[in-house]
Automatic annotation (TrEMBL):
<feature type="binding site">
    <location>
        <position position="48"/>
    </location>
    <ligand>
        <name>O2</name>
    </ligand>
</feature>
<feature type="binding site">
    <location>
        <position position="216"/>
    </location>
    <ligand>
        <name>5-hydroxyisourate</name>
    </ligand>
</feature>
<feature type="binding site">
    <location>
        <position position="167"/>
    </location>
    <ligand>
        <name>urate</name>
    </ligand>
</feature>
<feature type="binding site">
    <location>
        <position position="167"/>
    </location>
    <ligand>
        <name>5-hydroxyisourate</name>
    </ligand>
</feature>
<dbReference type="InterPro" id="IPR002042">
    <property type="entry name" value="Uricase"/>
</dbReference>
<dbReference type="GO" id="GO:0004846">
    <property type="term" value="F:urate oxidase activity"/>
</dbReference>
<keyword id="KW-0659">Purine metabolism</keyword>
<dbReference type="GO" id="GO:0006145">
    <property type="term" value="P:purine nucleobase catabolic process"/>
</dbReference>
<protein>
    <recommendedName>
        <fullName>Uricase</fullName>
        <ecNumber>1.7.3.3</ecNumber>
    </recommendedName>
</protein>
<feature type="binding site">
    <location>
        <position position="150"/>
    </location>
    <ligand>
        <name>urate</name>
    </ligand>
</feature>
<feature type="binding site">
    <location>
        <position position="242"/>
    </location>
    <ligand>
        <name>urate</name>
    </ligand>
</feature>
<comment type="similarity">
    <text>Belongs to the uricase family.</text>
</comment>
<feature type="binding site">
    <location>
        <position position="49"/>
    </location>
    <ligand>
        <name>5-hydroxyisourate</name>
    </ligand>
</feature>
<feature type="binding site">
    <location>
        <position position="242"/>
    </location>
    <ligand>
        <name>O2</name>
    </ligand>
</feature>
<comment type="function">
    <text>Catalyzes the oxidation of uric acid to 5-hydroxyisourate, which is further processed to form (S)-allantoin.</text>
</comment>
<feature type="binding site">
    <location>
        <position position="216"/>
    </location>
    <ligand>
        <name>urate</name>
    </ligand>
</feature>
<keyword id="KW-0576">Peroxisome</keyword>
């Protein structure tokens, strides 16, 4: 049991300069006894309102140096404070506020919300077990207008989809990775590096791009690049929900539409998902 969607803004001041972190936190506990379920005995139950207040107090006292460190702080607090807690899991996601710049100069107290993907993390721990940390990005919308196709797929009497060697590749990406056992990582640096790998693998070189024969291959390329460049990542999960675009037929309007006006196919949409792990992690 626990408390969901604890939303708050943490404001930190460095002289005239203001720094903000707006987050949403979900914290869940498993107790050493199930007596509250079986017997209606609430003597070990930590009220969810108390859970919420603890999260807010930790934000006040410790700040939010990184999302991962804040999730770790929450897990450690419940494990060290309450002997009846057998397991704790905390999820934290960030509202994407970015500092405004005017003519290249960063503003001291103004921000803009840029929806270019939502950063999140999870930390979980069993009593007498290791603290495990996950991180990721979700709601990241990506598109490339060429260098994508889908050919040579299986066909039978139900197949109506034509082969395409040049199409728009567009989707909303969810990516989550595991560090394994928690260590003293630079979580901000790792997250930014992983995000750069995702964008690089999706798009290819800036002057020419890179051909994608399928959404599945693009998912695998993202995972392989992250694993090759970010040594701290042990397991990576990627889900790519696809958005398809159809060319508008303008013949009745007396116009030729050479893939210049397209409309998105909202539903149904395709989805590709894959989890990839380092061999040594699986063996361990």
């Amino acid at each position: 049991y626990g408390k969901n969607t604890i939303k708050f803004l943490r404001l930190h001041k460095e002289g005239k300069k203001h720094c903000v972190k707006e987050v949403e936190v979900c914290t869940h506990l498993r107790l050493t006894s199930a007596q509250e379920y079986l017997d209606g005995n609430n003597s070990l139950v930590i009220p969810t309102d108390t859970i919420k207040n603890i999260v807010l107090v930790l934000a006040k006292k410790n700040g939010i140096p990184t999302l991962e460190q804040f999730a770790i702080d929450i897990c450690k607090h419940f494990m060290t404070t309450f002997c009846q807690v057998a397991y704790v899991k905390t999820y934290v996601q960030e509202v994407p506020w970015q500092r405004l710049h005017e003519n290249g100069t960063p503003h001291i107290h103004s921000f803009i919300c840029v929806p270019d993907g939502i950063r999140f993390c999870e930390a979980e721990q069993c009593r007498n077990g290791p603290l495990v940390v996950f991180a990721g990005i979700k709601d990241l919308k990506l598109m490339k207008t060429t260098q994508s196709g889908f050919e040579g797929f299986y066909k039978n009497e139900h197949t109506t989809l034509p082969e395409r060697h040049d199409r728009i590749l567009c989707g909303e990406l969810f990516c989550k990775w595991s560090y394994g056992e928690c260590k003293d990582f630079d979580f901000d640096c790792i997250w930014n590096k992983a995000r750069e790998c995702i964008l690089e693998a999706f798009s290819g070189p800036p002057d020419c791009g890179e051909y994608s024969p399928s959404y599945q291959k693009t998912v695998n390329c993202i995972q392989m690049l992250v694993l090759s460049k970010v040594s701290q990542v042990q397991v990576i999960e990627v889900v790519l929900n696809n958005t398809f675009y159809n060319v508008v037929d303008m013949k009745n309007l007396g116009l030729t539409n050479d893939k210049e006006v397209l409309v998105p196919v909202e539903t149904p949409y395709g989805s590709c998902a894959c989890t990839l792990a380092r061999k040594k992690f699986l063996e361990a």
